[in-house]
Amino acid sequence: MTTTATWLGHACVLIRTRQHSLLIDPFLSGQPLPPPVSPDTIAADFILLTHGHADHVGDTVNIARRTGATVISNYEITTWLTNQGVSRVHPMHIGGSYRFPFGRLKLTQAVHGSGLPDGSYGGNPCGLLLALDGCTLYHAGDTGLFGDMALIGEAGIDLAFLPIGDNFTMGPEDALRAVQLLKPRRVVPIHYNTWELIRQDADSWAERVRQETATQAIVLAPGGSVEL
Ligand code: NI
Ligand code: MN
């Protein structure tokens, strides 16, 4: 079986490796349109959270309780999840990496906030740099543009997930600059069109990426997949 990455709407990405299901930012039941997969049936061995905002923590507690998945995030968020009744967590922090059964994960910086849904302190927001099955993936989380994306790109990114929605994160213009700094082989835009406030034309953004960079831009519909 090949490794696949499936966009489940907003910032939620499901990665299926040969042996594991990794769910990133599982905000599913809160999406205005029915999500491509129900949070009541989705499989997960690991749940990775970029930051504490409700549109990223989403259905984490329920999915983790049902599946027994290990939730990986920053120390503040995993501590909060433990208090919510999540039994398996793995705390990390920015700059740190760890070899998990699925591969190596490093938390990178993100320029954003991270307050948890009940107002608790959620530490600093993160991006995710994943090395698995011979591929390097970068999920930027919610972030503004920052110059050190060039450093993150030195890892040689095969597939990047970047927010383009504007208002809360990078908009299309800055996300294009991000592609120029990260130099990923392929990029998938996320965190747009969930609400009117972050409505964007992903196809014209992808066209600009194709014209102005060497990166292949892939626009997915929610539920659409990329093979790694
Ligand atoms: Ni956020
Ligand atoms: Mn968000």
Strand content: 25-35%
Roughly how much helix do the residues carry, as a percent range? 10-25%
Span between termini: 11 Å
Number of helices: 6
SSE sequence, one letter per element: EEEEHHEHEEEEEHEHEHEE
Radius of gyration, taken over Cα atoms and rounded to an integer in Å: 16 Å
Gross morphology is globular
Instruction: Summarize the biggest pleated sheet.
Output: 7 strands, mixed
SS elements, strand count: 14
The secondary structure category is alpha/beta
Outline of the structure:
With 228 residues, the protein is α/β, with parallel strands linked by helices.
Characterization of this structure:
With 228 residues, this protein is of the alpha/beta class. It has a single domain (4-221), classed as Metallo-beta-lactamase, Chain A, CATH 3.60.15.10. It contains 6 helices and 14 strands. The chain has a 7-stranded mixed β-sheet, with helices on one face. Helix 5 runs parallel beside helix 6. The longest helix has 11 residues, at 172-182. The site of nickel (II) ion (NI) has 6 residues, from loops.
Write a concise keyword list for the protein shown above:
228 residues; alpha/beta; Metallo-beta-lactamase, Chain A; seven-stranded mixed β-sheet; 14 strands; binds nickel (II) ion; binds manganese (II) ion
